[in-house]
Specification:
single chain; alpha/beta; Rossmann fold
Length: 228
């Protein structure tokens, strides 16, 4: 029996452009706690390592401007909770699929490809978003930052999911949009497809990748050789 191909997907900035809703949640929290708000483009550069990291990095950026350090863990924890609560209630107001995603997922399903999501979003939020955007049923597994005791860029975030799917790391592809995805794929020795314009402040040539694509249009041509 031929081993099925497994494709692992990042979520934010890869499958779905979530920046507008993340920005709204982020700015809601910042206003409430007395910090500066951010633009959508700035949010794209903060996303990728989870809510706590995004809030922390945003606070730290302002702290540097004010030449003081913010180290109140309790306030940070309150901000993260507020962010998750607000975002969870407004998770798919403006978020939309990246171009070509739905067609690519349909093609993968028809070609018996196993698919899973590996995201640094909280698992229940990732599941809820996928359901609201109506692509949840394409995936056999969804692993968030809190699913295991580790998350990207730790390669085990990817390899554990492959193991759960009874796949083979040697017959797996990772698709993502940031250095966090790239580092985990590289460490796992999994071919990596980088989606341009993602949630990172780095240029594509600064991020490890095997292939670079603008979106999911005609992505089948890249994946097809890996099926057989």
């Amino acid at each position: 029996m031929t081993q099925k191909l497994t494709i692992l997907f990042d979520l934010d900035g890869t499958l779905i452009d979530t920046a507008p809703d993340l920005m709204n949640a982020h700015n809601h929290v910042m206003k409430k706690f007395g910090y500066e708000t951010r633009s959508t483009d700035e949010i794209r550069n903060l996303v990728g390592k989870g809510a706590e990291s995004m809030i922390g990095r945003s606070m730290w950026n302002q702290a540097k401007k004010e030449l003081k350090q913010i180290d109140d863990k309790e306030i940070k924890s309150q901000m993260v909770k507020e962010f998750i609560d607000f975002y969870g209630k407004n998770i798919a107001k403006e978020s939309k699929l990246i171009k070509g995603v739905n067609e690519f997922l349909v093609w993968c399903k028809k070609n018996n490809i196993s698919m899973a999501v590996c995201t640094n979003k909280t698992e229940h939020l990732a599941v809820d978003l996928l359901k609201q955007i109506k692509i949840y049923d394409f995936f056999e597994y969804v692993a968030g930052y809190n699913t295991f005791e580790y998350c990207k860029p730790d390669p085990r975030h990817l390899t554990s999911v492959v193991e759960i799917l009874q796949g083979d790391v040697k017959k797996t592809i990772m698709i993502g949009d940031s250095e966090t995805d790239a580092e985990s794929a590289k460490a796992a020795n999994i071919p990596f497809i980088l989606v341009e314009g993602g949630y990172t402040d780095k240029n594509p040539d600064e991020i490890y990748h095997n292939y670079l694509v603008k979106d999911f249009i005609d992505l089948e041509k890249l994946v097809l050789p890996y099926i057989n």
